[in-house]
Amino acid sequence: MVRIGKRIGALMVLIIWQSDDLTATPSHDVADERRIANCIRQAAGGQKWLEVTLWGLRDQEGGWIGAAVPNRNGSHDLGPLQINSWWVPKIAETLDRSPEDVRHWLRYDPCFNANAARWIFVAALASTGSYWKAVGIYHSPSSDRQKRYAASVADHLKRRFGKAIFSPFNAGGAGGVR
What we know:
- By secondary structure, the chain is mainly α.
- The protein has a single domain (28-166), classed as Lysozyme, CATH 1.10.530.
- Helices cover 65% and strands 4% of the residues.
- Helix 3 crosses helix 8.
- The relative contact order is 0.12.
């Protein structure tokens, strides 16, 4: 009887811990937002067009430090740029680190999260040669969902940077996002 009680108690602690873990609420703490902004700048490596892109993804995703947002398919979107947990094994293998470490870093380290977002986007860009296709791939393997997502990111870019962001000669130095 005591053994069953301990198991139920341990199970309850695990359920409570996991539910707290999955329902972390967004933080709009100014210091966190500054950290995320610095990480996006760092991840872009001085390439203005890439920084602009990462901001578009960030604005679309709306994640926060510590986020683990459940999806209908059982995956989770992690951290500020909402990296899907589907990527965890691939990133872990690439870095020769444990999936648990990678998942933790994606959630709680905004610079690791921004660099993972850059890696996913740049890999998609290299494989497709299409900026907007790569933006869509960041979100989904489904072509229809990619198109809707890319259109939404474009709207976020216009709101943040103005319509001139899509000009090849824009004064903002991004070189135009097409």
